[in-house]
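tokens incoming
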């Protein structure tokens, strides 16, 4: 280091200072990405991760400078560098650069740039989806109950009337004994339809003869009872409807609270704008609150499927195993990206490489910016710290 301080010219000093600046920017982005992915919070953890990242970045730069020097003929002669040493350091150096940069710095920097650009809009899109679901549910929850019970009453009446008609035709059939097993079966079906156990819904009579008058008597005997059973069943449906409507009132209140929460979080996202909180070195409070609220929606069993169907583009919408419906392997892409996945560098890259990111993410822009940032920094480090014996360079044959 002393030798460099003595021999460095203005160009080397400029390159070194600019390299340190770009290295700090790159490491800051990497640290943000790692803290988001791992869930680290606070200044203490941020500083620790930043220092580790800076050390790794420095090691990467060291290997690049060493590769450059070991492929310089004058440097090799002056320092006694053999062919084996040159070959081993060149191959090993490139491997270490690939390990530290391609696997560590470059993907995390890209992830952080994507997060900073997209976090607010991703959170708003997910909240908007859930807002539509909950507002629709709030407006229709009691209407759905009323329609369902109306249909049940219509079905009940139509079925009982149909069974009564079958009963009457059986009584009037000259080829059968009238009030026989088949006629009694129709009465039993009416009992079941009216939610009664077989055999307890009717007071039965005995058929005296097969005369038209007797058959009319039997029908007149059972018709009022059928009407009574139908009326009781309809009253029971009315009571159930009212009880369920009382429950829906509570559900409407819960949904209204959920809608208000989403609107409040929307306002916080609009007011905050920033996605990173520098005071606590973590995701901004508005993004964190949105993330929690979004997860709360996914955890609601009543609306989970509707919400997720709006988010995912599935390969197979009706798999035999329902638990695998939203499994990653069954996801073709995303209509709306998940803020939960946006937090994680590995998952963002996984989705990008699999072609599952929604339209508008423009990952290539952030990939290029991230690559340019590090490449320029590494070029400056080589210019600043390479050996002075670099006027003549030879490519070594392996």
């Amino acid at each position: 280091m002393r030798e460099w301080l003595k021999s460095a010219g203005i160009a080397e000093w400029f390159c070194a200072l600019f390299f340190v600046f770009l290295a700090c920017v790159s490491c800051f982005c990497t640290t943000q990405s790692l803290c988001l992915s791992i869930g680290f919070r606070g200044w203490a953890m941020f500083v620790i991760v930043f220092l580790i990242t800076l050390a790794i970045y420095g090691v990467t730069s060291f290997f690049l400078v060493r590769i450059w020097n070991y492929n310089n003929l004058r440097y090799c002669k002056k320092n006694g560098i053999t062919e084996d040493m040159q070959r081993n350091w060149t191959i090993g150096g490139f491997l270490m650069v690939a390990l530290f940069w391609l696997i560590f710095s470059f993907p995390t920097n890209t992830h952080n740039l994507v997060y900073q650009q997209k976090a607010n809009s991703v959170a708003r899109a997910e909240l908007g989806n859930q807002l539509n679901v909950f507002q629709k549910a709030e407006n229709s929850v009691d209407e759905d109950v009323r329609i369902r019970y109306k249909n049940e009453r219509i079905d009940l009446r139509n079925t009982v009337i149909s069974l009564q008609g079958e009963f009457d035709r059986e009584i009037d059939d000259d080829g059968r004994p009238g009030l026989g097993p088949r006629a009694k079966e129709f009465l039993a079906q009416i009992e079941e339809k009216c939610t009664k156990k077989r055999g307890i819904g009717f007071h039965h009579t005995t058929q005296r003869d097969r005369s038209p008058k007797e058959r009319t008597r039997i029908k007149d005997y059972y018709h009022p009872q059928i009407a009574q059973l139908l009326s009781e069943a309809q009253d029971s449906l009315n009571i159930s409807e009212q009880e369920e409507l009382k429950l829906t009132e509570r559900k409407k209140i819960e949904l209204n609270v959920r809608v208000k929460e989403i609107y409040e979080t929307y306002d916080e996202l609009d007011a905050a704008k920033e996605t990173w909180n520098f005071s606590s070195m973590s995701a901004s409070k508005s993004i964190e609150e949105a993330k929690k609220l979004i997860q709360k929606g996914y955890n609601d069993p009543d609306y989970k499927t509707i919400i997720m169907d709006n988010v995912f583009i599935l390969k197979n919408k009706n798999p035999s195993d329902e638990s695998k419906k939203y499994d990653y392997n069954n996801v073709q892409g995303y209509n709306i990206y998940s803020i939960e996945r946006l937090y994680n560098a590995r998952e963002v890259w996984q989705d990008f490489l699999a072609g599952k990111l929604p339209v508008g993410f423009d990952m290539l822009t952030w990939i290029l910016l991230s690559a340019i940032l590090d490449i320029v920094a590494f070029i400056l480090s080589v210019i600043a710290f390479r050996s002075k014996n670099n006027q003549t360079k030879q490519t070594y044959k392996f």
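note: Residues 390-398 have pLDDT under 50 and may be disordered.
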